[in-house]
């Protein structure tokens, strides 16, 4: 998931980009209510998690800064972009970090695709059953 926040500006009566000092806490729970991610980020950020349980997940974003919210008249806008599946992996970044050859990288991509297909099939079985 990628997100960015905007605070309400009383003077211009519009939402403006948040100051870097604003903290956001991101928490993700799986269908069983188990926390799979709980982390502090800034006014904008990117979070990733791997789901091991098929079904509906809960994503909670909340500001840790009451002072900022009060200053902004209590209005905070959050733009959230969620990407799901193996296409969310940044393979050039993975190749550079893990020093992979082109063949090793392709093998990693194919394994990720197989894993994604298996997850989708398991999800279909659970949601239909």
UniProtKB/TrEMBL annotation:
Signal peptide: none annotated. Its main location: endoplasmic reticulum. It is found in: Endoplasmic reticulum membrane; Membrane. It comes from the Eukaryota. Keywords: Endoplasmic reticulum, Membrane, Signal, Transmembrane, Transmembrane helix. It is a single-pass type I membrane protein. Residues 1-84 form the GOLD domain. One of its GO terms (cellular component) is endoplasmic reticulum membrane. InterPro entries: Emp24-like, GOLD_dom. Belongs to the EMP24/GP25L family. This is TMED4 protein. The lineage of its organism: Eukaryota, Metazoa, Chordata, Craniata, Vertebrata. The gene is Tmed4.
């Amino acid at each position: 998931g990628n997100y960015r926040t905007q605070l309400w500006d009383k003077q211009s009566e519009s939402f403006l980009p948040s100051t870097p000092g604003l903290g956001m806490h991101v928490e993700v729970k799986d269908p069983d209510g188990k926390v799979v991610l709980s982390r502090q980020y800034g006014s904008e950020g990117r979070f990733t998690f791997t789901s091991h349980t098929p079904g509906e997940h809960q994503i909670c974003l909340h500001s840790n800064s009451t002072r900022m919210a009060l200053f902004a008249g209590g209005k905070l806008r959050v733009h959230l972009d969620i990407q799901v599946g193996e296409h969310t992996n940044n393979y050039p970044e993975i190749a550079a970090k893990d020093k992979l050859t082109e063949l090793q990288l392709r093998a990693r991509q194919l394994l990720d695709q197989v894993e994604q297909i298996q997850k989708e099939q398991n999800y279909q079985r659970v949601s239909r059953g």
